[in-house]
Amino acid sequence: EDKVVQSPLSLVVHEGDTVTLNCSYEVTNFRSLLWYKQEKKAPTFLFMLTSSGIEKKSGRLSSILDKKELFSILNITATQTGDSAVYLCAVNRAGGTSYGKLTFGQGTILTVHP
Amino acid sequence: DADVTQTPRNRITKTGKRIMLECSQTKGHDRMYWYRQDPGLGLRLIYYSFDVKDINKGEISDGYSVSRQAQAKFSLSLESAIPNQTALYFCATSNYRQGSYEQYFGPGTRLTVT
User: Fold this and answer.
1) In this structure, what are the phi and psi dihedrals at residue B89, rounded to the nearest 5 degrees?
2) Is the N end or the C end of chain B the one with fewer CB atoms within 10 Å?
3) CB distance B42–A107 less than 8 Å?
4) Rounded to whole angstroms, how far apart are CA atoms B103 and B91?
């Protein structure tokens, strides 16, 4: 059974801090790893990673995948109160009837204080 | 206008009642999914559908059923609601035909079973 574990489960920081969120996974026939941000409503897509060692960046957010060690990190630099959210990691298998089906981790709750 | 809509947005029902949650999408995506979210457990897949004639169970399908009435509509039913089905329910879509793994989420339905 596929497994995705995120750490820490919750994190409280102050504006301006840099945070690193972790996601480790065990999945048969790995295809991709996705990061989502969930504020009060629906999760919104941040990144998809398929290749090891290639960093994806969007503004102050960046993410990288290590397929050998089976983990990914999401970095947020110079945090702002608007970064407060639940960050979800999900993995996708390749091929067959599981194609497109995501297995999610339990999420990391990030709280950024002014 | 939202691409993925869910109705109702909030619902309180009593134990033993049958309830249906509805999802519609205007994205033209072929795949649709139902998830539930509980605190500390991330998103767990209930059912997913590749197209109108292809429906598959997810990891927690017991107590639920689904119907894909059209490519754009996917409904989730609780035949006899129980309190531990109290959760936030999300519908999602993806575009398998275009080879996309990213899922787009609706705004969620908060269901309370008393």
Assistant:
1) -110, 130
2) N
3) yes
4) 10
pLDDT at B108 > cutoff 70? yes
Please say if the pLDDT value at position A95 is more than 70: no
Rg for chain A, CA atoms, rounded = 14
| Tens-digit pLDDT profile for residues B46-97 | 999 988 889 999 989 999 999 999 999 999 999 999 999 999 999 999 987 6
Q: Which residues of B touch A27 (CB under 8 A)?
A: none
Q: How many Cβ pairs closer than 8 A exist between chain A and B?
A: 56
Q: B47 to chain A, minimum CA–CA distance in Å?
A: 10
CB contact under 8 A, A104 and B44: yes
Question: Which pLDDT score is estimated for B80?
Answer: 95
Q: How many CB atoms lie within 10 A of CB A108?
A: 21
Structure tokens at B97: 């035909």
Residue B101 touches chain A, beta carbons under 8 Å: yes
